[in-house]
Automatic annotation (TrEMBL):
The lineage of its organism: Bacteria, Pseudomonadati, Pseudomonadota, Betaproteobacteria, Burkholderiales. One of its GO terms (molecular function) is oxidoreductase activity. This is Ferritin-like domain-containing protein. InterPro entries: Ferritin-like_SF, RNR-like. It comes from the Bacteria. It comes from Thiomonas arsenitoxydans (strain DSM 22701 / CIP 110005 / 3As).
Length: 286
């Protein structure tokens, strides 16, 4: 199909899109039980790094909008729904981190992160094929949706539970949008499962070496003093975090979401879901 005259996907919205979207005013930060989470080193790293990545969404959005400039419905949704919600996630997480860990210099750490992240966040990093980039987006949204579900269940702190659930719901909706756009474009393209699988594998391989890893490193560089951390090397911190998250991540849900773009026959999908879930758990625990 000629890129200059593509059929633009429909801008249809799900039923949940018509409900009022949550705002920062909904989050009762003064109600945070600081004493129950302040000394949780893993939680500090997970929240601070997530706040960095979400806060850098503006740069990433510009790249995606440019990449999908021939698809007005997609670029419009990215600019007017996806980006504002991602930036809101960043502000909400930043406020939580600053409330619980006021000794952490969030602004300086984020500036350090962004100076590196912005140089690496380029259009060239995206899949050349727009349909395959939508597959890659499904991988990212699968990761974020399951990540925030894990954060929600990581602690009994009620404000964090509420905040993480709001973000999780947003990320699930983002996944649904990207998946729908992929299906609409692929209805004309009819990409082979081999090519779709290739895009899935490439994006999965980048998850540990992309923005989250950069964010964790800059959190580590500016971390406040934790008795439980001391002079522990960055690599050991990462290993602890991957172990904690991997042990709690809803792998069954993640595998189901990742398999959807392949449009496998139901019987085949059912047969491979369980072994893939076990494999994913082993990889995350490694």
């Amino acid at each position: 199909m000629n890129r200059a005259t593509p059929t633009s996907p429909s801008p249809g919205r799900s039923a949940s899109d018509h409900q009022p979207h949550w705002t920062l005013d909904w989050i009762d930060y003064p109600r945070i039980r600081t004493e129950s989470v302040h000394d949780n080193v893993e939680l500090f790293y997970l929240l601070a790094s997530a706040s960095f990545v979400e806060s850098g969404s503006e740069t990433y959005t510009r790249n995606l909008v440019e990449h999908f400039d021939a698809y007005p419905a997609i670029s419009d949704w990215l600019q007017h729904q996806w980006e504002p919600e991602e930036l809101q996630h960043g502000r909400a997480l930043k406020t939580y981190v600053q409330t619980v860990w006021p000794e952490f210099d969030w602004e300086a750490a984020y500036a350090s992160f962004f100076s590196e992240y912005s140089r690496l966040c380029t259009v060239e990093e995206l899949e050349d094929d727009r349909a395959l980039e939508l597959v890659a987006r499904c991988v990212v949204e699968t990761g974020t949706a399951t990540y925030y579900q894990t954060l929600r269940d990581f602690t009994c702190e009620p404000v964090l539970n509420e905040l993480a659930e709001h973000i999780r719901v947003d990320e699930v909706q983002h996944y649904k949008h990207f998946y729908r756009y992929f299906k609409e474009i692929n209805a004309e393209r009819n990409l082979s499962r081999a090519r779709i699988l290739g895009a899935l594998k490439r994006r999965l391989a980048e998850l540990r070496t992309s923005d989250s890893d950069i964010a964790l490193r800059h959190v580590w560089l500016f971390q406040p003093h934790f008795d439980a951390v001391g002079d522990v090397p960055f690599e050991h911190i990462c290993q602890r975090l991957y172990h904690h998250v991997g042990a709690r991540l809803p792998m069954e849900q993640a595998v189901k979401m990742l398999l959807k773009p392949l449009a496998l026959p139901h019987r085949m999908e059912h047969l491979i879901e369980r072994p893939l879930t076990h494999l994913a758990r082993r990889v995350m625990a490694a």
